[in-house]
Amino acid sequence: MYINFWYPAEWSKELTDEPMKVRMLGQDFVIFRDSAGVAHCLSNTCIHRGGSLAGGTIKGDCIQCPYHGWQFDGEGACKSMPSLGPDARIPTRARVDAYPTVERYGIVFAFLGDLSEAERPPIMEIPEYGKPGWHIQETGSYSDGDFRRQLDNGLDPAHNEFVHPTHGFSGANEDYRTPDLTVEDTPWGSGFLTKYFAPPLKDKKMRDATGRTENAVIEAGTFHHGPCDMCTKIHPTAETFMHQNVFKVPVDENHVRSFLVQTRNFLIGAEHDARFVERNLEVGGQDRVILADLNPEFTPETNSHEFLLPADEAVVRYRERLAEWQARGWRINVDAVEQERKHQAFAIPCPARREQPTGWVLDAVPLMPEGQVADSIALRSGTQG
User: Fold this and answer.
1) Residue 46: which of 75, 27, 25, 69 has the closest Cα?
2) Which residue would you say has higher pLDDT here, 179 or 234?
3) What is the sign, positive or negative, of the torsion defined by CA atoms of 310, 313, 314, 319?
4) Which residues pair with 138 in a beta bridge?
5) Which domains does the chain have, with CATH numbers?
6) Half-sphere exposure of 216 (CA within 13 A, CB side)
């Protein structure tokens, strides 16, 4: 899991006038709206005696801890310590980590890291969002497993032939060969678009919308953005487009929450949403069956422990990006956190720690040392030509 990226904390419509506890990157946070309706995200642990801030109440622009009533504003500063009386001087050290928030695409995003505003990677863009002729559909889900395995799967064009009967011919096509890939880099990711030879759609109404009644050449592909987000573009015809924009956040090492913002320019209207939900569940279920039984459970730390082919080029490039971000010191040391979990609370370091490195009550979550990366994870020689 990696700090210094924007992560989806909650759907905007779900964050109302009550604080919410959310778990991201193996740590707990509280999100709440102040008196003006502005969303805030703080480390959930009260620095006094470890109370859960999310179990408290909102007082004006502050969140009040349910244990002893300490109040913290949206910047993480303590504004009230009731046991000291109403006129008490609040020490500047009495603060919790606070994280920048942005509401976009119907989601409350939190920047979980300590980079300054100018250094932060952007949120993955959805260029067509809100434009005429495009329908927006939101769907959320939870899943078990390693988020990296999920991203690997999304960037893998070869599995469609065998895992998804709606995408390929289940190995019945003896002339099958994965199309050649041209992997394109973006500032914070990479991906591809390619052509697939796909069977006809079985859903009559879907066929009517796309015109597909026979085998067809479909343009499709996936791009990742950062460690967890990806956009799968599916173009059944030259005029019909569907984009699966998925913002993922690791709840912890073994669980992932996904926020799907689907955009499409056909079958526009909410009356068609149920059909797409059903289809997404079917396709996602096919992936989950395979991912649940992978060995090892987590993505290997070195590419030399898998025999990779040219069709895996996008997967290799994704892993290279992860290695780059680990080398910057952005990867959480999960083993170190787990070892101390029962005896020590940590916080994801927030931007204020750059401005004031000392005086924080909670230690920042342990990170992998900068530059410490398995040698072969970033070597293309691990891909067999």
Assistant:
1) 69
2) 234
3) positive
4) 261
5) 5-119 (2.102.10.10), 135-317 (3.90.380.10)
6) 18
- Please tell me the distance from the alpha carbon of residue 136 to that of residue 292, in angstroms, as a whole number: 30
Structure tokens at 151: 């991203």
Per-residue HEC secondary structure of the chain comes to CECCEEEEEEEHHHCCCCCEEEEECCEEEEEEECCCCCEEEEECECCCCCCEHHHCEEECCEEECCCCCCEEECCCEEEECHHHCCCCCCCCCCECCEECEEEECCEEEEEECCCCHHHCCCCCCCCCCCCCCCEEEEEEEEEECCHHHHHHHHCCCCCHHHHCCCCCCCCCCCCCCCCCCCCEEECCEEECCEEEEECCCCCHHHHHHHCCCCCEEEEEEEEEECCCEEEEEEECCCCCCEEEEEEEEEEECCEEEEEEEEEECCCCCHHHHHHHHHHHHHHHHHHHHHHCCCCCCCCCCCHHHCCECHHHHHHHHHHHHHHHHHHCCCEECHHHHHHHCCCCCEECCCCHHHHCCCCCCCEECCECCCCCCCHHHHCHHHECC
d(CA 105, CA 117): 20
Largest CA-CA distance found in the chain, in angstroms, rounded: 81
Q: Would you give the distance in Å from CA 66 to the centre of its chain? A: 30
Residue 308 has pLDDT above 90, yes or no: yes
CA distances 269 to 133, 243, 261, Å, are: 10, 16, 15
Nearest to 142 by CA among 255, 287, 246, 285: 255
Residue 238 makes CB contacts below 8 A (sequence gap 6+) with none
Interval 152-176: pLDDT, tens: 999 998 888 788 776 656 566 676 7
Distance CA 66, CA 71 (A): 10
Residues 31, 108 contacting (CB under 8 angstroms):
yes
Residue 278 has pLDDT above 80, yes or no: yes
Dump pLDDT digits (tens) for 26-82: 999 999 999 999 999 999 999 999 999 999 999 999 999 999 999 999 999 999 999
